[in-house]
């Protein structure tokens, strides 16, 4: 039973951290670190087939947030690892 709650907490913490990093992407006054970008790309990879993960993340973003996040990823192409940025864009859809 404890393992169930630990897994649920970890999943919720992952969603929260992904939302935080996407929020940094959306905010033009902030620049995500390479570690944050790598974490976000990793979350998208780990949860690629998880419809619930996508639902919670994208519902929180909304259409405007999704556009801003994708735009921010494009603007980072000269300053970050392109493979990581591609994985993020694939995750954002």
Automatic annotation (TrEMBL):
The organism's place on the tree of life at top rank: Bacteria
Name of the protein in question: Uncharacterized protein
Organism name: Natronosporangium hydrolyticum
């Amino acid at each position: 039973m404890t393992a169930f709650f630990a897994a649920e907490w970890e999943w919720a913490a992952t969603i929260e951290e992904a939302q935080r990093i996407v929020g940094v992407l959306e905010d033009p006054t902030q620049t995500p670190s390479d570690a944050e970008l790598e974490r976000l790309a990793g979350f998208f990879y780990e949860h690629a087939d998880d419809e619930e993960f996508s639902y919670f993340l994208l519902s929180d973003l909304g259409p405007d947030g999704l556009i801003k996040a994708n735009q921010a990823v494009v603007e980072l192409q000269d300053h970050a690892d392109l493979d990581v940025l591609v994985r993020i864009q694939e995750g954002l859809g």
